[in-house]
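So, can you check what follows?
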Amino acid sequence: MTAAMLRDQTDIGVHYSRFRLPPDLDHSIDASVLGEAPALLREAEVTAMAFHGTSGSWKGLAGDQELCETLTAATGAPATTASLAVLAALEAMSLTRVAVVFPGPAPIVSLIQAEYAGHGIDMPRASYPERSMGNQEISRLSRQEIETLMRPAFAADVEAVVCIGTNLRAGYLAAELEAEFEIPVIDSAAATLWNLLRTAGVQHSISGWGKLFSVP
């Protein structure tokens, strides 16, 4: 999805480095899990970097801050994460009461609500699947299935809808649902790119991917 969002930005180069994802959502992501990925990005001399993972949303944003410090020490580039990007987006848009969409089990949704509450974000409404799914299954969800998961989150008592999940391709529906319900949709993948560009000092207007990209 990142490549799709940047397809018209010919002056921006994006480098990717993969690592083996732990099988359990309870597993914390730290430098030991990332392996050689940061070193490979250092060789690309990137201006900024992002850990495109959302585990900090339930394992704790403090851990994400520590991970950013580790990544910066390893690469020399300022860093962010998907979860920190979501929080930055909410703060930039002055949003404090939101619904959360998450493609995982209810106990983790509760942890997400508690974590963001500690940062001043109330999540009174949540939408999540009735059954547990693995990362690969989440990535294969159809547009209709993603929309079905998202729609229950839209309600009069929230200011925005936040979609958390690296493999949940909710960003493709953001602009369409924003137009219908007239509230912002903050997708974690889109927020990651938005915050990465800000961190790199890049000021580009990207259209078609939601209101967030009009926020400086």
About this structure: The first strand starts at residue 49 and ends at 51.
